[in-house]
Amino acid sequence: MKWRIPHSCLAAVWLIFLSLPVVPDVLAAGNNVELSIAFSPGGALDAAARTLAREAEKELGKNIIVQNAPGGGGMTGVARLAKSRPDGSRLAACVTNALIFIPFRNETPYRPLEDVEPLLIFGQASPVLVTQPDAPWKDMDSFLAATRERGGEMRIGVPGLGTPSHIALAVMAAGDPSLKWRFVPFGGPGEAEAALLGGHVDAAASGVLPRIKKGQLHPLMVLAGTRLPALPDVPSLADKGFSDPGRGDSSFILLAPADTPETTLDELSHAFEKAAGSEAYLKILENFSVAPVLKSRQEAREFLRRAWAEEGDILKAAGIADMPAASPEKRDVGAAVPKGK
Length: 341
What we know:
It is a single chain. This protein is 38% helix and 16% strand. The protein has helices spanning 7-19, 26-29, 44-60, 75-82, 101-105, 140-150, 164-175, 189-197, 209-213, 262-276, 279-285, 297-318; strands spanning 33-37, 64-68, 90-95, 116-125, 128-131, 155-158, 182-185, 203-206, 218-222, 251-257, 290-291. The longest helix has 22 residues, at 297-318.
């Protein structure tokens, strides 16, 4: 006996199929890809992401249109991406503080571990603790010795409280009672450098490779767990026996909207991973205090979840757990991020 499906049933199934939402594969369709950089032009992230995009174009066979979307320490760029259609046509590059540090203590218009999907981590910002060339301390050991001798009189300029450089130094001080510094916050690394050169602080944290190479500033230590290829003789936190608490907040990360098809994510991540290993990309990093750290999609996802889980303890260790990441009158307000993620 043969079973026959009534035409009316076939028609109903066909109508249901047609009503399902379709997300086109933009990569297969040959359309351009737009990449938003969550900071202003001219910085390390901007230069790195633009070079990465140029190299990835060769693998994808299509144009990547780069634009800057600064604001809120990266929140603006991430929020825009989270609302984009998940078809591979929109990507964003930011620093992981927009996914960990800021939303951990502020309300943000996106859920950092759910509304976006990491494609790869393509570098780690590594601030450098610098001093004037004619300062009495010529290396980190002598700077630490002077710190202990002066008993809390040493002043360090930082590009904002709660930045990776400030957290790293605060954790150092919290772990060693003999290290007492007066942190002086500025609006950015340029202001901290100017204060140092003007004699208003004893040291400053910044990523100032051009000035260091010209001898205008003297490097003491890289405030990250690994040395910089451009400054091979400058020790890192690990070299001096200190932990690297800022690693969860200071990595460069490439994001796609959540729910982007797996095949599209695979194609994009493959192209950008290959770009991150190119000679042109590694060459551009030599101009900035950025370590060539590379993590795949899965590694980046696990890194973010681990960093989120550790952030509370890190901030408590630094003594800044109750400090907001942005001033209440300026921060964006949206769905709160649950602390138990």
